[in-house]
Design brief:
single chain; 0% strand; elongated; mainly alpha
Amino acid sequence: MATRYPVRRPTEDTAVHAASRSARQLPPPHILLAALVTAYAVGDRHGMRLFALAVVRTAGGPTR
């Protein structure tokens, strides 16, 4: 039996559409900086990258 990829999932499409209708608010910068310090303390490189980019976005920097 041959299957087609990617498999269309109507609930996934609906969820993506609902999430893209409104921009999510980021937490205040002091909370993001505290999370960045915590990620650095535990050595979480992925978390450090995510929180650093979120801090830049809240400061009005580039979104890429």
